[in-house]
Amino acid sequence: MITLTKDFEIPALNFQLIKHLVESDEEVEIIRKQILPCFYREDFGLSTIKEIIKRLSELVTGFKGINLPSESLSLKEAIKLREYAGAKVINTSVIVNAKRTNAYLLDDLSQLAQREETDKETVIDTILSKPMDSEDIKDIDDQEDQTPLFPLLSNKAQRLAATKAEKARLLVIQGPPGTGKSQTIVNLICHLVAQGKTILVASHQNKALEVITKIMPHIEYLAMSMLKGDKESINELRNKIEGYHSYVSNVDVNRYKVLLEDRWSELKKINSSIKKLQVRFSELKILEREQCPTYQKYHKIRDYDIIDASDSIPEGMDSSIATALSKYSKQLQRLKKDYPSKIKKLFCHIKIKTIEQTVLKTLPKTLAKIKFDILKGNNIPALEKPELIVEAFRLSSFIREDLLKNPDDIKEVIINISTLKNESHELIKKILATSRRIALKKAEQSNETRFMINKLKHILKRKRKTYSFVQLREQIDYKKLLSVFPCWIMSIEDVARIFPLEAGLFDYLVVDEASQCNQATALHLAYRAKRMVVVGDSKQMKNPNTQFLSDTVVRLNLTKHKLDKHPKAEFFHGRNSLLDLAIGCQDTSPVFLNEHFRCEPPIIDFSNKHFYDRNLKILTPFRRKRFNPCMEVKIINGAYDDPDDTERNIIEARAVIAELKRMIDSGELEGDRKGEKLSVGILSLFKHQATLLQSLMYEAFDDRPSTIKEHEIIVSTVDGFQGDERDIILYSFRYAPNSKPGTIHAMQREDEHSLGRLNVAFTRARRKVVCFISMPKDNFPNGLIRDYLTHVASVQSSFYSRLGNPNEREKCQSDFERDVFDELVTRGLEVYAQVPCAGFFIDFVVIDKEGRRMVVECDGDFHYEDDELREEDYQRQDIIERYGWFVHRIPSRRYYANPQKAIDNLLLDLQRQDIDTEISSSEFAQEPLTEPAQMSSEEISEDKASLLFDSITVEDKIIEILSEEGPMPLWKIAQRIGQPKEEIIPKLEKLLEQAWVITYYEKGVKLWKAID
């Protein structure tokens, strides 16, 4: 527990052991404030050790009863004592030959501490320099949105990060859960490599680096990664380095240089075309707004447009023409009648001819048609209002001219922009691949470079720090080596081993999950880089290993290195993470990634409200496999904390595993596509409960261990989920009627560490959350955990649908939207109006009978108060597509010019969409539950998961609903039952056959009614 070595002036406490035994943050605080100061006594000795052990036994639950025995034991006797539970102190002597796994890192830090000045080329200089005035960073903040070299999809915040990274020495990117931090890093890597920069990517979390390499575009030798640090990983990297000769064997450098120039030129043209199309899009949006009233006016009097397009009406003749048309129609009506006198018919004919040859002489084709129809006995209602005939002709003439003058279709413009963006992404990948081949071929042609690459292979396989190893590393020109392999992704320890402590060796350092990275292990990285990008989330948990760091040690070290009076001294505290340090020392404002893509909206809503002040825009894709409700609370009746103080709730744990088995066996966890499986995580805030759950889980699937792998099942506390996620998360809260309130209080303290843990815990599930509790939520102590359970119960009992209710015409925001809405409903589509998306509202989501779905955006009437084209209108298409939808645009001019053709085109696009078989069951919330589901301990202990809920047949429910609520259409019955319409239809037909229900039509809608 206490280590005394010749390398440390102060005795060291075994923090890893303490961390394993200590349960709460309160006990951590006790150790830090009351135990750690003992280590700095000048007379530290055996009596001090006895005092430390005594205090631990009195203050910390996990150390109760321990003491320092006076008699010493042999090592064999000491090892036997490990079989007994509980903490024990053993008096024995052991000689240990242990590897110094962090020897390179410690040596680097030691070297840094001995250097009196920092190199101006490094980020260390930025960290230690005086805070920059706001005027100095204003130019960076005011930069326009550039077009970075991103091969993957991106949003405005990510593009802003690329712009700032080029100018700032130290940039912070704040990325809450599910906002695309890894994708941002990958895009940034590609952008910088394409510009000839060298990049080092490191993290305290190997898991984070694995995600980055997983989504990296498949471009050979774009990034050299060594994640695990084990023999296998090292051999993979060495083999990759050895194989570069064959990769470039047929490369002609001169030809590839020409090809590279051509691709750069082509990319420049594409970006120029995109900008022009974006300008045209904006122009068309304004045009649609300005001309919409004219087109709408024509649409209302369309039936009066009977004048042939080839005819004309001279200026100033509108009134005369209208009057003449009225007279003309009346004379034709008289001519049609059987007059007794031929002379009267003759006079009538003469009048008709006179009108034709004078006032109406410019309408020959129109008059011919009118004459034909009237004399044949056909009625022409439009002639009753000739003034509207003239107005309709004027409007239709304007529309024809307008469409000829502005033939561009806003829908086609958007499609062209999307196509060009995709071409741009692919071209960037080709540019990267081409430049990589050129660099590697040049390396192959250089004897000196080949020699260095060969030495690098030898370094990779050696781990021990020896004199010969140091000599070998000093023989390598790393600057030249990085021109061949410009990007490296590896752990912090491996960086210290492979790369020398050379100032500004890399152009850029990128550190992911920086809230988990402590300052000390990152300083040597900052020294090796000219610029640093720190990526993390200050609202998530910090590295738990720094919890025990003593304030006394921090003060001593700051004073020793003359940093205690530094303007930024407050950020240099060792318990602060690298992210905290970077936030205090950054030389530009941070970038906040505000688009969330991971969780179903209700799942992320809690953290968005409590941790991010509702700054997140929810863009979670509309997945095929969805759950309704997506959040549930299950109360386990009769469960309790074990009386033997093992801090476990066995009955609740069994309920969790029973639900897991039920979900898997029922097929509920089948994925979006055939053969896919949804992943599952089981999380408890308490480590002993998590250990119990893990044992029960392995026991449950002992006969089919492949299931664990198929569903990627993990069981852990919050620590095991940092940087990870699952489709389904089952929570075990353990708290029971016999638990002490302090059990929960310790987990929801108002400090950064505790709040960060809860934020991580509540944001791991993509699709569904199930919370298991052993007493009603209202019996939990006040605090964030109770608030969360209240939120879950509210979602469970609410009528939640991501789309809302179908066919709510009153939600339409303009006359244009109402006209389109009416036409869509007439065509038999379900129409959802004003669907929320990322802080604004989609005009319509339309769904056909087979389950195909699509977004419809109406470009015309503006219903905003300010009457201006807002920024989001430029971005809406891009945002909605990232939301996972296909977007069909209806311009008002095209619609009103020919409504039938506009809707026909919409239906053609809808027919091209995939059928969503889940659409009915997932969009209609189940009947609201007034209380969370309750499970008895007897049912759980017997593993009868099928008896967890009372059930009646679907047919019974249908009859009950129709009897109580009256007739309703099919979609509403499906909504109330909570099943797809396809599954409800055969049950309704069966009830109809058995004379339990009847059907009838009302306003064209088929209704189902229970027979009294």
Q: Which structural class do the helices and strands define?
A: alpha/beta
Helix content: 40-55%
Terminal residue distance: 79 Å
| Helix count, DSSP H or I runs of 4 or more residues | 41
Q: Any guess at the CATH architecture of the domain at 103-251 and 446-542 and 577-593?
A: 3-Layer(aba) Sandwich
Largest sheet: 7 strands, parallel
Text of the CATH class of the domain at 103-251 and 446-542 and 577-593 = Alpha Beta
CATH topology name of the domain at 103-251 and 446-542 and 577-593 = Rossmann fold
- Contiguous low-pLDDT stretches (5 residues minimum) are 134-145, 863-871, 920-930, 941-951
Describe what this molecule looks like in 3D.
48% of the residues lie in helices and 12% in strands. It is of the alpha/beta class and 1012 residues long. Among the domains are: 103-251 and 446-542 and 577-593, 3-Layer(aba) Sandwich (Rossmann fold), CATH 3.40.50.300; 596-797, Rossmann fold; 952-1010, Orthogonal Bundle (Arc Repressor Mutant, subunit A). Strands 5-6-4-7-8-3-9 form a seven-stranded parallel β-sheet, with helices on both faces. A six-stranded parallel β-sheet has the order 14-13-15-16-12-21, sandwiched between helices. It has a four-stranded mixed β-sheet with strand order 17-18-19-20. Helix 14 (318-336) runs antiparallel to helix 15 (342-357) and helix 14 (318-336) runs parallel beside helix 16 (364-375). The termini are far apart.
